[in-house]
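pls design
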């Protein structure tokens, strides 16, 4: 018998997973912050899932975090800066050997959560799917992609991987999930902060190719020093390809800053700079980028971490 998919973070990606799992007939339970949030969810009539312009209302079961029932399988789909607090709140509910899927961008939050949950099997995820919230409890599927899942060190894939296929969630088990996460972090570091500082769409960075190339060289140096040489293969070419392929889009960090939302800088560029410092590496362009980005955030009254 399958375990219930407990989903914390009924935002963009959490909603996207919950809606597809439930539509496939799998048991899903949303975990909401408190009773007030639960009342708002019920008043909204459940979760609205929008795909290709069609909306579907899903009255998924939901409960507050402090419910006592044990959790065996958890999808933690919060922003990176909220993950540790969410894990701390759910720690008393996790059954021994519970599986916790960490669906956060960047690096740093996964280790923080794993340290808080020694009784759980923490599975890291890296996703290129796209979703956004039109309003509370209304999720829009914005772009197809793929999700890689894995543990560090690697372990055999879990039996429930087939449930993701059943739900139409494109996913694969990776024996080197850290390489996937580092590669995505490098892409995000080479693109996202510059789009904020140059106030441009991704394609606008084609006018700053020398700056992008210099950042890629430092990112290759950093990843290599971190034991992730395989993740540096063709990095600059891929960054240029992503810039061209997503030329008309605004990066996620650009969108966060434009909307006055906190960014995940601490888990992207901040993590890169901390790892460089820890290893005594001098990466002046990344350091300067981080300094300029923090100043930009501070000037807008946004958190610098
Ligand atoms: P989001 O802000 O849309 O959703 C996060 C949800 O978590 C929110 O609803 C928030 O209220 C909830 N939450 C946070 N702390 C909570 C707590 N203690 N209890 C209950 N709920 C809590 O974020 P998102 O866009 O889904 O992003 C999640 C992660 O996935 C991020 O790291 C992001 O970078 C990454 N990601 C997002 C996308 C995308 O297209 N949205 C794509 C790839 C990766
Ligand atoms: O992932 C991205 C983002 O905007 O966060 C891309 C499109 C790859 C740009 O870094």
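designed seq:
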């Amino acid at each position: 018998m399958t375990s219930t998919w407990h989903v914390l973070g009924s935002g963009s990606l959490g909603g996207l997973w919950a809606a597809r799992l439930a539509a496939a007939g799998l048991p899903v339970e949303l975990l909401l912050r408190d009773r007030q949030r639960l009342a708002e969810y019920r008043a909204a009539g459940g979760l609205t899932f929008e795909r290709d312009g069609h909306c579907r209302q899903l009255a998924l079961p939901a409960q507050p975090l402090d419910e006592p029932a044990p959790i065996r399988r958890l999808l933690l789909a919060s922003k990176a800066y909220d993950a540790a607090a969410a894990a701390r709140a759910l720690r008393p509910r996790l059954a021994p050997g519970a599986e916790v899927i960490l669906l956060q961008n960047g690096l740093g939050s996964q280790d923080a959560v794993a340290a808080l949950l020694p009784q759980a099997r923490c599975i890291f995820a890296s996703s290129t799917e796209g979703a956004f919230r039109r309003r509370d409890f209304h999720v829009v599927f914005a772009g197809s992609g793929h999700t890689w899942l894995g543990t560090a060190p690697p372990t055999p894939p879990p039996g429930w991987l087939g449930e993701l296929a059943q739900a139409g969630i494109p996913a694969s088990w990776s024996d080197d999930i850290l390489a996937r996460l580092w590669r995505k972090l490098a892409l995000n570091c080479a693109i996202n902060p510059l789009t904020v500082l140059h106030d441009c769409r991704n394609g606008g960075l084609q006018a700053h190719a020398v700056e992008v190339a210099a950042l890629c060289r430092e990112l290759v140096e950093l990843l290599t020093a971190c034991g992730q040489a395989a993740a540096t293969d063709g990095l600059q070419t891929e960054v240029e390809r992503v810039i061209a392929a997503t030329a008309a889009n605004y990066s996620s960090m650009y969108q966060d800053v434009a909307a006055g939302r906190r960014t995940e800088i601490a888990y992207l560029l901040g993590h890169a700079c901390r790892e460089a410092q820890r290893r005594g590496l001098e990466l002046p362009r990344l350091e300067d980028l981080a300094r300029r980005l923090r100043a930009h955030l501070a000037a807008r009254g946004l958190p610098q971490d």
